Amino acid sequence: MSDTNLALTEIAPCTYLMPKRGHMRVDGLVITSPELMKNLELERPLQQVAQVAQLEGIVNYSIAMPDIHWGYGFPIGGVAAMDAKNGVISPGGVGYDINCGVRLATVPIKLKELSQTTQEALLKAIYINVPSGVGHGHRGQPLSERDYHDLLLKGARWSIEQGFGFSEDIEHIESHGQIEGALIECVSTHACERGKNQLGSIGSGNHFVEIGEIHDLIDPKTAELWGLFQGQLYILIHSGSRGFGHQVCQDTLDHFTTFELPAHLDPQLAAAPLNSEAARRYLAAMAAAANFAFNNRQQILHFVREAFQKVLGIDPKEIRLLYDVCHNIAKFEKHEVNGEQKMLCVHRKGATRAFGPHHPELSDLFQTTGQPVFIPGDMGRASYIMAGLGNPLTWCSAAHGAGRAFSRVQSKKRWRHENPIQAMKKQGILVMASSMATVSEEMPDAYKDVDLVAEATENARLAKRVARLKPKMALKG
Amino acid sequence: MSSSSRRLFFAMPLQVPHDAFWEDPIGKGKKIAPEHRHLTLCFLGDVAQSSYTELLHHLQSVPPTPPFKMGCVGYFDKLLFLPPKIERVVAWHIHFFVPSQVSDYQKTLSHYLANQNLKSDERHLFTPHVTLARYPLHKEEWQKQFHPLPLIATSIDLFESLGHSEYVSRFSLKLIPPFESLEHTADIAYLVRGQEFKELFIHAQIALCFSFPPLIPYLKLEVMPALNSLRDVIVALNECVTRMDIAIGCPFKAVSYHSHMYEKSNLLHWEMIIDV
What we know:
- Chain A is α+β, with helices and mostly antiparallel strands and 477 residues long.
- Chain A contains 13 helices and 19 strands.
- In chain A, strands 7, 8, 9, 11, 15, 16, 18 and 19 form an eight-stranded mixed beta sheet that branches. A seven-stranded mixed beta sheet of chain A has the order 1-2-3-4-5-13-12, sandwiched between helices.
- In chain A, a hairpin with a 6-residue loop joins strand 4 (58-69) and strand 5 (76-83).
- The radius of gyration of chain B is 20 Å and the shape is globular.
- In chain B, strands 2-6-5-4-7 form a five-stranded antiparallel beta sheet, sandwiched between helices. In chain B, strands 10, 11, 12, 13 and 14 form a five-stranded antiparallel beta sheet that branches. Chain B has a four-stranded antiparallel beta sheet with strand order 3-1-8-9, covered by helices on one side.
- In chain B, a hairpin with a 2-residue loop joins strand 13 (261-264) and strand 14.
- Classes of the chains: A alpha+beta (477), B alpha+beta (276).
- The A-B interface holds A 41, 69-72, 76, 96-97, 133-137, 190, 193-194, 198, 204-205, 243, 246-247, 249-250, 253-254, 257, 266-268, 270, 404-410, 412, 416 and B 18, 181, 183-188, 212, 231, 235, 238, 242, 245-246, 248-251, 253-254, 256-259, 273, 275-276.
């Protein structure tokens, strides 16, 4: 490392140790590759890895995923497990967009079966059916107090009971689409107000609905088990808990930042002991926001299924959810520490859980393969479906995306004099969006090469590549 | 204008965020290009070459330095057709956060010029505005396009008119920018400056509006919250974000608790990072 004092030593393929120093309680562990390091600004995110290593009760390592970049408190792509007895919980280790995540569904036809005109009609139908962008939200009535009570308690099952999807979907959602312990009384009125018109909408920023084809089958055996085939259409949805979750995080930070914090710690690492009332309330509110997010993605998929039915006559039930993963969350999980099973609170901020084969929480379909892990790249090049390997070094975690290469400001400047939608069309990719500025910010050249991230993830034995996806249509906020 | 005179005026050039209507308004009228739009402070008219030379010399030796050292922030709050009744030009009116700051300086500048035997045109009460186009106008078309936009003014210039609504600066007094955009890989960042927390809050609000102008109606303009720390500023900014998200939706998740703040030249400097 040339630009930082936080020197890294390779201890295994694509696995680097950042020895503890100063106030660090544990070492840092960075999953990356020489190619990724060449193109990454690592100094600030690694400083954040070192800061996270100073938190009370952190176990083994402060971990960085291959798509690490500068975040709030934790880096994006940061993982840390805290001892459930004497550790802390930090909202900075979850993020503002609680349970931001990705779900992937498959369509039983091939992309090549769709003409250009049909593809355009399909994207238009999705654009009309799925609310996107700033201020676009819920298509029906605002959520009532009763709705909130039920959906926060039941998770994605609530939307299915309302007709948004099928009971089979539940087996294909992380934690069965419901984080236990949600309490509406731990959520502010402002959070409920922000969320009441936003359920079932993708929002703005880097959130999207993407349609494309399964381009390369890298692990045909796993692909077959999961019902994937070459050229198959897929639907990839990226969204989170919208204003509801943002406000839960904000309210908690407003509270936690009043606590005394050691002077050497970033205020965004404000934390509370896991056994405190403050932590209990945050965990209950975070669970509520996570359940809001599961419902959000459930309803978005429903609207996309409707669009497919309208344009292609495909029965919504034939559009099968493969999996739904969270990548901004803290969860209680049992892991082996020094030969003993211990309950840990695993913070994953811009990181995906990647349980390996035979994990008791996984449904039968994934028992022999490990859970699906999705690594979206950008709307022009590729995304990946991977299978978790349950690597104990990272508490069974993997990367969550490609990560940005250029800032939003730079991207907008680069595309100021060109129509980015037309530029994408020339590359064979159809894009619709509520805001042209968002498309400029999200152009493929703004992102790093997802191939390198997937390769490092596999080389470090976090997850193995199953299929490489090629985007064809994208709906942006 | 004779060849031995110059058409002069003092004005503040303005910076506004990227906006389609500001940059290329639709509507009849002799339009003034965005780079030539300004807030006129004192119009001197045609000034003899000798007086111009004297003025330049005086400006350099005893500049009309304003009592404020930072740039002025505000927003366009309404459409105007000026002058009243005749309506020869279409203009956007400016609401400054500290309205007296600019109007008081305008009077000071007028006295300064009078002391140089230069009389500025003061037929009308000073109304801070920017002219977008001149007669002939289609009022309805212009009315449809108006929407509030934030602005900052970071210099006071002596301009010379070159004709055809083109101007060139002959003298400039630079003010400290209230904020500047910073590079941030994933989100939006600004370096915000202020003499105290209240001013930091005002400047931060306008910076937020530069990223998303529809936030303007949700700003805290009149009643300031108690602001005794950066934490108070962040909490108050997030109240604006929350109000907007509830009302119409907001592209910002929140203003983060990133608290890198330092003092330099008696000014607070804060790196504000907005999660989007």
